[in-house]
Design goal:
The structure is a homodimer.
Chain A (H helix, E strand, L loop, with lengths): L1 H4 L12 E2 L12 H16 L3 H4 L5 H10 L9 E4 L2 H15 L5 E5 L4 H14 L4 E5 L4 H4 L4 E7 L11 H10 L3 E5 L11 H4 L3 E4 L13 E5 L43 H10 L8 H22 L4 E2 L11 E5 L3 H10 L2 E2 L1 E3 L3 E5 L7 H17 L15
Parallel strand pairs in A: 1-11, 3-4, 3-5, 5-6, 6-7
Antiparallel strand pairs in A: 2-8, 7-8, 9-10, 10-13, 12-13
Helix pairs in contact in A: 2-10, 4-10, 5-6, 11-13
Chain lengths: ~400, ~400
């Protein structure tokens, strides 16, 4: 099965590396460096200001949004690329709270990525109307959705354990209770099939530098359900989301539809890298990607559990309850991960003790999995992680 | 004088073009395409996730901020690059209002760029505590700063006319009245010397794609006066501004100093283009740039007024009251600008009747000015602008 979706030839992978961190930063599609250099030289350099029209820079965030829409089960015209995921969370939550003005609770869970919680805290604090952020354990979300809840803000896949929420069920529970549902698809987009439109959720946000391989700091995206897109009130009223940005009116009038979720001038160079990177998805079935990912994960878990008894599975055992990464607990996980990286197997570490491995079938196959476990087993058997050099922590761990 | 700062060899300028729109989008420094391609291939492609430490991606926004600081009269450690100007305006104003909680008026002027006003409107609306945005004519700002004013938000140089505010005097007036001063340096940074620290203002923001030649959609920046940087409260509480982002705490704790103005994951590729672009400023004196810019503007105004009587100067005649662009009014300005662009002289148009020309002595000299006016005079004398093809308006005008 993995053979059918592996497209290693479309990626520029470093020699001697097995990359199990595409859930954090996706690999480089081989066509991107040339594309970006050409875009910079030919579009910025030669067209200069005319690039906004002639090279399609102005329309690019919507064009890229449409490409992403096709990968997350959303209709064309419902997704806009831009800014960072933090900003998109803020936009979605601010608009959601306007839709539910009589309620004061935002519900999230302890498996959410911290920036979502931080941005929510900052927003609620700014609004200053007694809103509170209720954070429960992931398993307790469904029962915590009550009539006080204005909005439910959840990341579908837990960044540490890979535990995956049931999007349809929780969206239904939110709607039954009169709450607005916001999904963060950071670890979902490009990892498996998503039926965003079918879920009925009001908003979704996500990033593109993980499974979508958009590059470091690639733009984020926001989805607004089409029937809400003309009334969702933007809190970040940037000129690019104005109904007529080049009329330079003194007063803000939101554009119709998803365009109102644009804020400032988009990062055209970075967006061009993303646009090119997304072309590796042409003709790829996410159902096939998902099947291949599950096969790689099952192989990895089986081999690790057979050969590395020092590690304990931290992810759900049932692949249906999981995204596309697998985590193991190990008390010396930080040092062990450094030793792994030193030998060319790149995963990452999340405090306090989680070794995290991402599975990206576009550029990984079963031979990579066996090769990675060979090295991991050797590091654990020889206790190579005891080397003092593996204890030193960098700025970004 | 212009000879001393002209560095055309550092730029990749299109053949046959005289570019008078560097106040909107700066020209391409010749080293950027190769630098970006190399960064993408070598850093993203080969280092992958390790680039955050090994290639210095994490530290890049502060490193770039320090480079910008040196060009705007700010100390190292007081400027952070990232996001868009709209977002940075929002951050600055939200923090300013927290510093002045008993006041309810934000003062700006009708010469401000619309997105600043829009972002302010959105913020005040969200806060919902009866704040209002008071917009007066640029000439009336000083007398409008009264004891109701919480914050004064001004763009130093008017994007249409080039009229320049007196930064020191207005900051002093704001402080005398107990208001927090925020300067938008969009048309200032890289155009002339700025003594930001000397002005005493609390916040400044700006963009880098104009005179700083950072490329389309290059990151913005924010300055916070150092004595305020540890207490300024961030409204956009992104994880990159957390005191310990990789501890993944559930609660937000702002980083010390300017780092708290970081929000989400920075656009590394776009930031790398900017970082390389800023190297053209090494060894350049902004006083020399300004003197050369004034010489070019004076030459342009004199030649246009002598040879193009159809046009009326819309900018202040005194160069001391002006930034680094010059505008003329002409009822058929839109069509005339299209005709100019068609003949290789690129300026831009701002409704209803403003033809705008930017002067960037790093890549313009006096021969360019005469060449541009030759063509402009011919277009006006022959009424070439009457051609119907010049009446068609693009998406971005």
């Amino acid at each position: 099965m993995t053979q059918s979706v592996t497209r290693k030839h479309l990626f520029d992978l470093p020699e001697g590396v097995i990359y199990l961190d595409g859930n954090s930063l996706g690999s480089l599609p081989a066509a991107v460096p040339g594309h970006v250099a050409g875009m910079v030289a030919d579009q910025w350099g030669q067209m200069l200001i005319k690039g906004w029209n002639d090279a399609g820079w102005f329309a690019q965030p919507g064009r890229v949004g449409d490409k992403i829409a096709g990968l997350i089960g959303a209709p064309a015209g419902s997704v806009m690329a831009g800014d960072t995921l933090s900003i998109k969370v803020y936009q979605a939550l601010a608009a959601a709270l306007r839709m539910n003005p009589d309620r004061r609770v935002v519900l999230s869970d302890s498996g959410n990525f911290p920036t979502d919680l931080y941005m929510a805290q900052g927003l609620l604090d700014l609004i200053g109307q007694g809103h509170s952020l209720r954070v429960v354990e992931p398993e307790a979300v469904a029962e915590a959705i009550d009539e006080e809840v204005a909005a439910v803000l959840l990341t579908q896949v837990d960044y540490r354990t890979g535990r995956r929420h049931d999007m349809t069920a929780l969206t239904g529970a939110a709607h039954d209770a009169g709450a607005v549902m916001i999904w963060d698809l950071a670890h979902s987009a490009g990892a498996f099939e998503i039926d965003l439109a079918g879920s009925g959720c009001a908003f979704a946000v996500g990033c593109t530098y993980k499974y979508l391989n958009g590059g470091p700091g690639a733009p984020a995206f926001i989805y607004v359900r089409p029937d809400l897109a003309d009334t969702a009130q933007p809190a970040l009223q940037g000129w690019m989301g104005h109904n007529a940005p080049f009329a330079f009116d003194m007063d803000y009038q939101p554009a119709g539809g998803i365009a109102r979720m644009r804020v400032g001038t988009p990062p055209v160079i970075q967006m061009s890298a993303l646009e090119q990177a997304l072309s590796v998805w042409d003709g790829v079935s996410l159902a096939d990607v998902r099947a291949a990912s599950v096969a790689l994960m099952e192989q990895f878990i089986a081999e690790v559990e057979a050969r590395c008894p020092q590690l304990t599975l931290a992810s759900p055992r049932d692949p249906e309850a999981r995204g596309s990464h697998v985590s193991f607990r190990f008390a010396e996980g930080y040092a062990a991960m450094q030793a792994l990286i030193d030998r060319g197997v790149i995963g990452d570490f999340r405090a306090p003790d989680i070794m995290r491995f991402g599975f990206t079938p576009l550029y990984l196959d079963d031979g990579d999995i066996t090769g990675a476990v060979d090295i991991l087993a050797d590091i654990l058997a020889t206790e190579a992680w005891r080397d003092p050099k593996y204890q030193v922590r960098g700025a970004v761990t």
